[in-house]
Design goal:
- By secondary structure, the protein is mainly alpha-helical.
- It is 42% helix and 0% strand.
- It is built from four helices and no strands.
- The longest helix is centred in the C-terminal third of the chain and has 11 residues.
């Protein structure tokens, strides 16, 4: 089953994101720590596309954004060029 979502405009999407209800510890772990739990939460969040768009547009270099780690976002930026 595929569900279409609409990406909210502006930064109002942040309050609707599951991470806002969870806490930053999962999404900004200590270096070398697992991001598995953050990615699991992101996978359930319908705001994930807006979060990833924001992270890419604002060059977020730390933490899990839109379900992707720092390395994954860097790789995505490199392939987009």
């Amino acid at each position: 089953m595929h569900i279409e979502t609409i990406t909210p405009a502006g930064s109002g999407w942040q309050g609707q994101a599951l991470c806002a209800q969870t806490g930053a510890d999962f999404f900004f772990p200590e270096p070398g720590s697992s991001v598995r739990e953050a990615k699991r939460i992101c996978a359930l969040c319908e705001i994930r596309p807006a979060c990833l768009d924001y992270a890419l547009a604002h060059d977020e270099r730390f933490g899990v954004w839109g379900g992707l780690s720092e390395r994954e976002r860097l790789a995505l930026r490199r392939t987009a060029r």
